[in-house]
Amino acid sequence: SGHKMADILGPLLITVASVLGVAFAVFQFKKISAIEVDRSTRSHLEDGAHDPYEVLLRCYNAIEQGAKAFLKAEYTLCLGFTVIFAAVILFLTAHVSADEWDFSIGILSAISFTIGAVTSLCSGYIGMRVATFSNARTTIQAVLPDEAGWTGSFNTAFRAGSVMGFSLCGIALFVLFVLINVFGFFYPCEWSETEVPPVKILMETIAGYGLGGSCMALFGRVGGGIYTKAADVGADLAGKVVSGIPEDDPRNPATIADNVGDNVGDVAGMGSDLFGSFAEASCAALVISTQSKDLITSGFTTILFPLSVSACGIIVCALCSFLATDVSPVKKEADVEKVLKIQLFSTAIGMSIFCLLLALVSLPSTFTFESFLDANNERVVCTWWGAYICIFCGLWSGCLIGFITEYYTSHSYKPVREVAQSCETGAATNIIYGLALGMKSAILPITLISLSVYLSFQLVGMYGVALAALGMLGTLATCLSIDVYGPVCDNAGGIAEMSEFPEEVRDKTDALDAAGNTTAAIGKGFAIGSAALVSLALFGGFISRVANKSPGYEVVINVLRPVTFAFLFMGAMLPYWFTALCMKSVGTAAMAMVKEVKHQFETIPGLLQGTPGHGAPDHARCIKISTDASLREMILPGLLVIFSPILTGFLFGIEAVSGLLVGALISGVQLAISQANTGGAWDNAKKYVEKG
Known about the structure:
By secondary structure, the protein is mainly alpha-helical. The chain has one domain (20-34, 51-370, 381-691). It has 20 helices and four strands. A hairpin with a 2-residue loop joins strand 1 and strand 2 (100-101). It is globular.
């Protein structure tokens, strides 16, 4: 009966956590909905006085409509790709050997891929809707005097992030759990000594869920990123640099596109991105776990251990979120960064305790893997506490990467202040300092990731690396809450400026936004760190799958083989090619945006001068430029990433594709951390200079 009780524990925990995640998101949304955006909030205005609330409503509606229109166009393209690629997956995975086809495997893989893709798109859409719903409400709360304004505006933006964080985690976890149970009717979670165990086939078909999430994350990140940066760069160049008007000035036709971009890139794109990391980490751990007879025969709770780690994360993050909004709320500018740090730290401590108990209850005391061998070709004996240390390493590496990122991107610390001071001698020294800061900021995160990989692999093999990735993503609900908070505050500040609220309102939103730039960099740090661990775990899953398909196949890939070594270089080049395509696309679209704004200033009488009764700027034209550019330009980088390993594998074989994947992983992580932190530092150096 003890065994049966243990078998119920995992499914029960996952179900309760999933429901709690969605319910908590609804609870936070109700809190935001209580803030009214209508005429009753501005009864104090005198007749004929400038009504900033009327402009606020117009901006609020325009941003929401622009974001919805872009996502509709982007998601139409993404769904078309999903249908075509699902068919490709069906045929490739159904071809199980040279002369054998099994279409049940192909169909299930294609279904899990499609469900992963749709869940990813839903995650991004939920985030976009709640961010556009909350931006104006954050501005309205910032109008309140003193402490009430600080607490109200911070809580509104933070709760908006919570809605996305908890709904995404709850839905993602529950959908994966349901998929495993439904597919289990065709391939049960059972071990077999005489043939390929059904559980191995089950988890291989489930792996499509992670691939679907990652494909949509790729398009969401690239499409949304090109949109937001083209609008941001275009609006700032045309407004501040060329025309000498303030950022987010209501006369600038590109300001609405800029604010739409924050929602479709930094919210919807990030949501899909971290969903992809979660799905890939879970699927990698599940696939690798099928290499262990001990884990599979220990019961359903043991098999579901990777999902239970994420379930614990939802519960811990929900409990800790009250620290930011109720127990120790923001009352002044200095509190903002402190409260966000407390969130990261408290969730990491909570997860450390919960996961220790979970590992003790869920995992057998010792277990081995078919492909994890020592120098004498004997299986390495793994332990439950070794698995816990893997999670612990990932969890605290993620937390420390967050704090390191904050140090390099917040203007409270020396690195960003140095970048700001370098501007005294011109833009060139600013660029040099900014690039140097980004490169230097990669040292500690890469060291932490390397230590996590080494320890995890030594203790539990590739399964340990996958658990470390899940540990890093254990506080995903809080990370997303902190991450979405940034663009909501950015929008709130833009709306305050366009609506011409008093200066003190913009001061509050600027302070919240400066912290938001740092939190965005922290979110990117988590995404990059977890993606590095997930990629390595997936690579382990790929190699173990090769061993499954070809019994006796050499599992160790020799780096010094000419083809492997050559493709290490090719793989290391891919992130640069990908980055070049994205940056060129942003530059082209930003140039078109600057020309459009200049054209409107020249042709709409009185717009630039701000004379009374001047013509209204044509925001729709600027939104269309960003939309068209991002949808057109996201296709080539997306195809480059998805098809380069497939073509390499077809043309040059397993060793070539292994070199390509490892090269791309090692190069991409360094480049990503460096660029993300350089951008965050420049943004906050600008804020620091503007504050005087």
